[in-house]
Every structure is written in C-alpha cells, then in structure tokens.
Amino acid sequence: xxxxxxxxxxxxxxxxxxxxxxxxxxxxxxxxxxxxxxxxxxxxxxxxxxxxxxxxxxxxxxxxxxxxxxxxxxxxxxxxxxxxxxxxxxxxxxxxxxxxxxxxxxxxxxxxxxxxxxxxxxxxxxxxxxxxxxxxxxxxxxxxxxxxxxxxxxxxxxxxxxxxxxxxxxxxxxxxxxxxxxxxxxxxxxxxxxxxxxxxxxxxxxxxxxxxxxxxxxxxxxxxxxxxxxxxxxxxxxxxxxxxxxxxxxxxxxxxxxxxxxxxxxxxxxxxxxxxxxxxxxxxxxxxxxxxxxxxxxxxxxxxxxxxxxxxxxxxxxxxxxxxxxxxxxxxxxxxxxxxxxx
Length: 343
Fold this sequence. Notes:
Number of helices: 1
Largest sheet: 5 strands, mixed
Order of helices and strands: EEEEEEEEEEEEEEEEEEEEEEEEEEHEEE
Strand order of the largest sheet: 8-9-10-11-29
Radius of gyration: 19 Å
Structural class: mainly beta
Strand content: over 45%
Distance between the termini: 46 Å
Number of strands: 29
C-alpha cells in the first residue's frame, strides 16, 4: 500500500505502509516507511493521484510530474497545461488490470486533458468549463467523467469521444465531486454541505450537513462517504440513510486536507485489510486508521508520519502491480485542443 502527499512548500512525499517490526508503547501496529521526499515542483502542489506503482502530482507551476513508486524514482514532467495551474488528477484503472489505462487532469483554464498511461502520452484536451475546473470524477466504466468548476456548473465529459456531453448551471460553486463505488450515485461538495445525486439524471436524493467547510472526501464500501475539513475530524456518512455512521473526532490538530480509503475496490481485486483509511492535515501529519475502532470509541492511529510541511493533498493505492510505468515522447502530431464550450 502506497501513499503520496503534496505540500505548499513544493515537496512531494512518498510512503509505503508496512507492518511494524518492533513493539510500540503507543500501540502503532503499522509503519509508514518513507520512499522519497524532494521539491518536485517550482510552486505549491495542488493535487496527487496514485494507482499501483504509478503516481502523479500537479501544481500551480502548470506541470504534471510522474513517479514510479516501485523504484522510488521520477519519470519526468509533462508540460502540457502551458500557463494554467493543474487543479485535479485522476487515474482510471479497469477492475481486471493492476495498472492504470488513463490519466486525467484538469486545469484553471477550464480544460480536461486525457492521457494514455502506457506510456504517458496526451490523447486530447477538451474545453469543458468557462472558468477553472475544481474537481473531476471518473465513472468506473471509464466511459464518462463528471466535473465541477468555478463557473458554478456541473459538466459531463464523454471519454470515448473526447467531448463534453452535458453542461448545467447549478447556481453555486462546488469544490469536490465523487462517484460512489457502484457508479449509481455521485456526491457534490459545496462548502459544508454534500449533495447526494442519482447518476442517471442528477436528481438530488438528499443533502448532508457537515457543519464546517469540507476540504476532502473519499467514497468507501457499502455506500459510505468519508469527509474531512475544517472541523479536523473524519466523518463517515451512510449515504443511504443520510446519517453519520461514525466519526473520528479531532483526528488531527489542524484542517484535514486529504482522505484515502486504502482498501476500496479500485481495480486491484479483493482487499487484504478492508478497514484502513489514511488522512493528512495541513500541519504536515499523515495518519492511518482502522475505522472499525471508531464505531466503538475514539481510535488511536495505526501509523503516523510527520513531514513538517503544510500538506495540501493526499493520494494512495492498495493495488499490487509489478509493471513499471513509463513516459512517452510527446502528444500525437496534429493533436489540437478541442473546444466544446457553449458560445
């Protein structure tokens, strides 16, 4: 199981989660072994993504950096977004594969870019929003993605044809969007609220109130959605009933900036430890939790790492893969940015 975190100080941090080999008085049974740490970007890192041994980071320096976690090495950078910050990254890994098929990136100029992941080569870029894209969620089929942007709109991208197929004004700016595990629902975060929508027609099923601003979210098993933010806690919502399933209060001493469900079905098959969740906070601390303990009492973290930096994002994967990622030369000749924005 691998984790990477990005920071405001331009550093990328890589960790491997392993069983602890020594007795610990604070009951930590796992350890986060550092793989690498160095200033990968020229300005703050805004987003990271992981799938198997492949990892990517994006920042306000308009570049995407790629990593091979099996060798703890950098594969190089993609200078595609020109003069626009990278706002989100997502891998698509089919359930029958242990390596990603595609990498998707969004930018502050409203574009969604689609890359082949073997090797990493740009396939196409689509103008989806009139302003910056805040987040992107890829359906488990790999055929479509949903995006939300600063233009207060929700959009759907046809990933097969490489064009926008839906664009709707929602009247408020959503910061995050996620599909549930089945792909039948999606979650849209606006400030402290989470809207649960039916994927087929975007119908609002119910709305969750997080009290304070939500900064990160991750879908779990059996209809559970985990959120974190300014309340410094990790809250697990039962999206079927709209109620809180359990909560790790004061999980961190600062804002929670990233949550990763390390054992969800992200393409790697059956999980070995189906209860592990990792979180990162803006004071530089990464923690790993057994969420079963949160149902009974306030749990202690199973593992902890202190980066002494202002973390901005967290990514992770439990997929086991022995294939090394590689980067391509360039985009295909004649490839142009496609615009589907309404005039």
